Hints:
- By secondary structure, this protein is an alpha/beta fold.
- About 45% of the residues lie in helices and about 15% in strands.
- The chain is built from 14 helices and 15 strands.
- The chain has helices at about 15-30, 70-85, 95-110, 125-130, 145-160, 175-180, 185-200, 215-230, 245-260, 275-290, 310-320, 340-345, 375-410, 410-420; strands at about 45-50, 50-55, 60-65, 90-95, 115-120, 135-140, 165-170, 210-215, 235, 265-270, 300, 330-335, 350-355, 360-365, 365-370.
- Strand 6, helix 5 (about 145-160) and strand 7 form a beta-alpha-beta unit.
- The radius of gyration is 24 Å and the shape is elongated.
Amino acid sequence: MSESGFRKTGQSAAERRQSANAEKQKAAAADICQSPLHARHKTRRINVGKVPVGGGAEISVQSMTNTRTADVNATLSQIGTLVQAGCDIVRVAVPNQEDSDALAAICKASPIPVIADIHFQSKYVFEAIEAGCAAVRVNPGNIRNFETVGQDMCKAAKDAGISLRIGINAGSLDKEIYEKYGAAVPEALVESALKEARLFEDCGFEDFKISVKHHDPITMIETYRLLASKGDWPLHLGVTEAGPAWQGTVKTCLAFGALLSEGIGDTIRVSLSAPPEEEVKTGCKILEYFGLRERHFDIISCPSCGRAQVDVIDLAQKVSEGLKDVQAPIRVAVMGCIVNGPGEAREADLGVASGNGKGRIFIKGEVIKTVPEDEIVPTLLEQAHIIAEKMEAEKSGAEKSEADKTESGKSGAEKTGSQKTKPEVFPVFGANHANLTN
Length: 438
C-alpha cells in the first residue's frame, strides 16, 4: 500500500522508530523474572509498546475486547475494565474497514498497548501499523498470498518499530500442511509456525513472537514443547476456544501449569466464554500461584464436610466478596472446624477457626478475640482492611526509600531532567466519555 493510502498519525516513521528504540532500551534493563520451579526457557526479547516480552521479562497477561472495535467509546471503556483487572496488553478485532478506521483513536487513548487482530485481508495489517498499534497479530493460515505480503508486513513493522505475532491456530491451519498431516497435530502446527518464522527472519525481521494454539490441552502442551525446542522466539501461550468459565479454566490451568513449570511461556491469554476481565483475573492468579507475579489477596478455606460447624461456603464467599478489591498480599484463612482450623488460621495473616457458634480470630497465629458466629464476617473484613492498609503503607515506604536512593545517585543534570518529567495519567473510560472519534 502506498504512503498516500495510509491515514496520518501524529508521529513520522522516523519518530516512531526512535521512540520504539528507546522503549527497547528500557525493556532490556527490565528485571529478569525467574520461576521458582524451573529456569525460564531462553527466548529473545521483543517489545509490545512499553511491555517487554521474552528474554526473562515478567510474563504479561493479555486479553481481547468483545466490543465492536468501531465503537471507540465502548472499546475504551472495556479496556479500562481490563486494566483494573490487571491486564498488561489488549487485543482488538479488525474484521472490517470501520474497525480499522477506529484504531488510531483507540491506540491514542488506551492506557495499555493495543494489538490489532487481523485475518483474511492484509491491508488491515498496514493500516493498523500506521494507526499506531503496538503490535499486530497475523494469521498466516487465512491471509491470502501471505508469502508475498508477509515481506511487506515485515518492512512496515520494522520501519514503525513495532512487533508482530505469528498466530497459528488449529482451526485455521494452512491447507497444504493440514493435508500433509491429516489433522492439526503438534508437528503440523509447528511446521506452519517455522515456515512463517523463516519468512520473517529471511526479511531480517526478528521482533515477533509465536503462538500455536489448540483447544485440547495435551495437544497444546506437546505443540509448545516442540516449538520451544526449535528456537528462541518469545512464546504466547493460549488454549484456544477453551470453553465456558469453569471448563476453560480447568483446561487452561492444566496446560499453563505444565508449560510454566518447565519455564516455557513469555505472555499468556486465557480464552474463556466469559467476560474478558474474568480471563485477566484467571491469568493473573495462575501467575501469582506459580510465583511469577506479585501475590495479592488470597483466601484459604476448607471444603464443606460433615465436621464443619459453620456454613463455610457462605462464609468464604462473603469474605471473598468483601475483600475482592484488596491489592495487598494478605492471606486470610476461613476454617469451619477444630481439626485443621487452628493450624491453618495460624499460618495465615488473618484467620478464623469456627465451632460451637463462635469464631476464634487469629492474627499471625495469635488469637486476638472470640466472636459470635454472626460477627465473624464483619470482624474479619475490618481486621483484613487494617492489615492490608499497613502492608500497603510499608510497601510505599520501601518503594520511596528505594527511589530516594536512586535519585541520590543521579547527577545534577539527571535530577533536573527527572523533575521536569510529568507522570503519565491514564483515564478509565465510562459509558459517558466524550466521543473520541471527533
